[in-house]
Amino acid sequence: MIDSFYLGAYWAQRKENLDIVVNKTISFLQGLARVDTQFLNWYEQGYSKKEALSKKIIVDKENIETLYKKSFKKNDLDNEGFSKIGYSIGMWSGHQEEYSSSVSINCGHSSKFFSNSCVITIPIEGEQKERLLSLIKQKELLNLLIKNWEPKNIILSSNKLKNEIGTDEVGWVSYYKSIRRAPKTSNTVIYEKFNNGHLFYLADKSCYDYGLAKELLPLKEIIE
To answer: Most Cβ neighbours (<10 Å): which of 1, 29, 97, 118?
Structure first.
């Protein structure tokens, strides 16, 4: 089975109107393009690659607002422009399947039963994958996610890692806005203060090494 990696930012209830969400999304997508060439172009998701590639996304207020409006009905908005169900948008980078990325944003939820999120998928093969999984790139992406979405936590995870450690709240790279206490970790896990929060990652040349996956388990004890 091919192991897929993704970087996800998550936060709880936050009521936001559509105009604020659109502006944050534009800022985020423009920032992604500055972080890496992988994120220069975006396309709407379709039933086929040919259909999707015919729907290139122009990152401006009118187009991003139109995309969000496809995810809800007019009567889902109240008089102040807030959505009862939040806002959702999804797009992909247009590369060949194994070298492509996608972004999904679900935000504006104020219910305690829903999580808000912004998730970036990493290519499953190629130089793009290794480049984006480098700690340098991961920190750039973390800074961008924190600046635009102010999440509670950000996790770089993979399908295989979730199965091995039994949680999706700890990853190869883990950022938490707050923690219960400093964890007891081995020398293979680095801890540093990062952007007014707490960052953990493996002391390894790459962001991931399945031989060291269980060294991440102590992080489960300090999550709020």
So the answer is: 118
